[in-house]
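[SOLVED] Need 3D model of a two-part complex

Original post:
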Amino acid sequence: MGKKLTLGVVAALVLAVAAAPPAWAQKGPIKIGFIAPMTGGAAQVGKDMLNGLMMYLAERGNEIAGRKVEVIVEDNQGSPAVALTKLRKLVESDKVHVLTGGLFAHVGYALAPKVDEYKIPMLYPVMAADDLTQRKPSKWVVRTGWTSSQPSHPFGEYVAKTLGYKKVAVIAMDYAFGYEVVGGFQKTFEENGGRVIQKLWAPIGTTDFAPYLSQIKRDADAVFALMVAVSSLRFPKQYEDSGLKAKIPLIGGGTTFDEFVLPSLGDEALGGVSPLIYSAAIDTPINKRFVKEYRAKYGKVPSYYSETNYTAGRWIDEAAKAIKGDVENREKFLAALRKVEIPDAPRGPIKLDSRGNPIQTIYIRKVERKDGELWNTVVKTYPAVSQFWTYKPEQFLKDPVYSRDFPPCKYC
Amino acid sequence: MDFWISQVFNGISYGALLFLLAGGLTLIFGMMRIINLTHGSYFLLGGYVGLTVIWRTGSFPLAILVGAVAIAVLGVVQWRLFLHRLAGEELGQVLTTVGFALIFQDLALVIWGGEPYTIPAPAALTGAFNTGTLYFPVYRVFMIGVAAVVAVVLWFVLERTRVGAMMRATVDDAEMAGGVGIDVRRISMGVFALGALLAAGAGVVGGAFVGVYPGADFEILPYAFVVVIVGGMGSLRGALIGSLLVGLLDNFGKALFPEFSYFTLFAPMAAILAIRPTGLFGRA
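Solution:
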């Protein structure tokens, strides 16, 4: 009798569990925590990022894997310290299920250990510091963006072989992102027979580039410039005014000619060649639709910041679907996030390599005027480029991360 | 030789921009002793207003005029309602003006967005004078010219006119000045307005050179203070020499020792202040 009762209870329990609606139906919305600068100098970049994410979610009716989505936006004013405070708030009091956003490499480095401590998945659609998926990987960080040196590797080859430049002078922003973009370029450029004959490092926030420009070696075949945000706005003009543009062509890292500044630039930017994981001018139906709808909604051409965050929304969507919305199970969610493959993002097909950085198309772009606007016309595509380019990862990782002095400037 | 000529030219032209900015600050901070941390905001807002005028009318001179006058009015309102009550209260001035700077920053973000812009210079001011291997961008020559004109006019007004004498009297001893029948309040307001006017004008002229973007206010502010402190509080000549010094130091530091560019800029300043705590031309 006692035994039968026990069995009966067990049976009833089993039935009850089986008959219960799926767990997520009662759990309320999936909460996404978004951290980016919303005020201060980088506010517009933060806005571009948020626009991308919100546009994706709106297209899905703000629903992912059958659950409503709630985005909680936190402003870190571009500061790593504030980002950490906001991270704690999002995890501890808002109880978000996943985090995304972030701008600037040093913010990325600051957040990663804390994200690991909280054991909560965080997407890095923009922060590109190489070592986060190379020598200092972080378990809970899912990089859906890029490494700084990733577009530079094919570009070095392109400049040496296709453009045929032999000697290049470099001027770049004096911080980690600059070192990594320049380092990747120098490595492959010199392996293909080119020579970097000069490296000038300008502090972030340099207003007047004239002292650097007057030093540029005049026998260079091209000048490689890495500028970010406001300096991208100033540099091309000063380059032209110094009389250099007429003599030495300007090439550079992708952010030097980003869509973010192109509308504010004029003829001085024309002809600039640079590589990146995205161009608003990519000629595919998916990207054309993306650009058209983004413009209709926000009144401007999407930058790579918008695209990567749009795709981050898709990324969360795909992973949540794969685990049927059970995002409360963080380990499972993380595993699903790492498995996502997107064959048709606006920027092309994307999947993660074994160290968690996207393998994706790199676009070589040239600034041209079309219908009165400046666009980054794609002149060549390198499909399926990994952060290690054509090198064996083990071999590549034996070198130190790119820095001011690595690779050394042998021909300076 | 080319190297030295072009570096000196670059240094002077950057110093010219700094003078336009610091000339206003030397009036407000140096002469009136109001620690005005909103000065950078005048520069930025002047740039934004100028930008709007250019978009509407396409006229560069009009942009400078409207930008400068609009911000001068703003400065006067700020002075009338808040700052003149805080005479001599440095802490109160710092807190109030930082507060204003932050409010202006966010207002600018709301009105003009966070997009970085440059003010399009008229075609006549673009390009470069070219002699052999030397290039002198026209816009830099223009900045030097504007700074020279402003310096001469300011000097003339302050030293050679009745109004200038009234200004100096007000600044030196407001009570006595009032006693001999000078309208101290109106003169103070005028000096403050002139300071804001110069900063905003510099914002439009500089906007074509460094751009107009959120954060420019706090980027440019320390340079202005350094110029005024090194040159000496309240001395127009000090502001002029200080600007040239900072422009040249900044330029040669970057050109000769790029790794130590901040050091080469700030170390000589520390040395000057150690030897002459009142700045080069300041009075104790």
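Edit: The first helix of chain A runs from residue 2 to 19.
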